[in-house]
Amino acid sequence: MDYIKRKITPYLKQTLTRGKSILLLGARQTGKTTVINHEIKPDISYSFASLITRQRYESNPALLESELQEQVKKYPNPPIVFIDEVQKIPRIMDIAQHLIDYKAAQFILTGSSARKLKTGKDLNLLPGRAISFTMSPLIYQELPEPKPTLESILLYGTLPGIILETENNIKDTDLYSYVTTYLEEEIRAEALVRNIGHFSRFLEIAAGESGKQINFSRLSQDIGIADTTIANYYQVLEDCLIVLRIDPLDHSRTKRRLIKSPKYLFFDMGVRRACANEGIKLSQKILADLFEQYVGIELVYQSHLISPNIKIRHWRDSAGPEVDYVIDQAQTYIPIEVKWTDKPNSQDAKNIKKFIEEYEVKLGFIVCRTPRRYKITENIIALPWEEISVVFDN
To answer: Long-range contacts: 285-293, Cβ < 8 Å, 24+?
Structure first.
């Protein structure tokens, strides 16, 4: 299979050069293991995705520590130790810390779920020792040529394995298999929820609600389970890196009453469609909704590459005005609206104008299907969706 170069690679290499270790989290099949093996080439590797390997160390993590202490002696400099799916045996984090502190090794620890790493009173995320990164599906700049059409991205997403597959029917089969495998392996095997049937129904509805402001009480009525359970299910999806939480900008400089509900976006458009159990013949209205979601996940993942201090938020006045996304960097804001049109006008920019007046910001964007960028007003620009990274340059 062809290798696709990833934008995160220089950041990983730079971290290792600084003598730090790496904690790399990302949903399954985003390419974590491929990047590490292809670009870093670790000296010592373990994969807890392998049942045999996992069983060897689950009941006795000290065995791994003993083995590593002997292996690292073979290297004149601290070797790079790669442990894949580290959340399967969280106690390994203590072993990594011990070897890091004695400068015996550097570690690259990858995982497809943060839930097991986050639970427990003695959790160890190697503070000060490991730098955390998130591996996403392919962002637009990483897509190989010829790049897929926008509609193809909205239907099939950008997981590397899906992008490299040429037959749409096989893409569909792989996406539905991904969802089934996820339910079986991440949810049932990890015993993250008690009722897999309820969760399966929730997952389908949550996919359909992706990008909307969530009302737990309404969803509770639709599914027939407690709203506290709904909230827990969303937390499971967030911890397992299947959804991205978009929090609201909740302070106003005037007396606006702002909506404070979060939005959740599925991490990949193809996985979202498979979870929602939708076909491929979608209306223009649905495609417009999906386009808004896709722009959101691109903003989140591109911000991860730039700075952990950048937050992607949304803004909505209870009286109606709404801005799809707001880039928040230390309370310096850039408002972004998403429109399916190829020629947005001043009417499309009305909510951004209100935001600019409210927060006295310098620039806003309407991300759309225009082939070339242009000014709608002095401080609002219509931007082709392919050039979305431009918003972080301002």
So the answer is: 287/151, 287/154, 287/340, 288/340, 289/211, 290/154, 291/150, 291/154, 291/338, 291/340, 291/385, 292/211, 292/324, 292/338, 293/210, 293/211, 293/265, 293/266, 293/269
Chain length of the chain: 394
Q: Token pair for residue 120?
A: 């427990």
Q: Give the residue from 386, 382, 302, 293 showing the smallest Cα distance to 341.
A: 382
Rounded Cα distance, 68 and 36, in Å: 19
Q: Write the CATH number of the domain with boundaries 9-135.
A: 3.40.50.300
Residue 291 and residue 385 in contact, taking contact as beta carbons nearer than 8 Å: yes
CA distance between the termini of the chain: 38
| Domain chopping of the chain, boundaries | 9-135, 141-393
- Give yes or no for a contact between 106 and 21, defined as CB atoms under 8 angstroms apart: yes
- How is residue 185 written in tokens? 């392996």
The model's pLDDT over 310-360, given as tens digits with 9 standing for 90+, comes to 999 999 987 778 999 999 998 899 999 999 999 999 999 999 999 999 999
Residues 6+ apart with CB under 8 A from 65: 95, 98, 99
Cα–Cα distances (Å) from 82 to 39, 85, 95, 107, 125, in that order, read 13, 10, 13, 6, 16
pTM over 0.90: yes
Backbone φ, ψ for residue 13 (5° rounding): -65, -40
Return the structure tokens found at 186: 């991440």
User: pLDDT by residue (tens digit) across 228-255?
Assistant: 888 888 988 898 899 999 999 987 766 6
Structure-token pair, residue 223? 């599914």
Whether residue 146 is preceded by a cis peptide bond, meaning omega within 30 degrees of 0, is yes
β strands within 69-224, DSSP E: 80-84, 106-111, 130-134
CA–centroid distance for 52 within its chain? 29
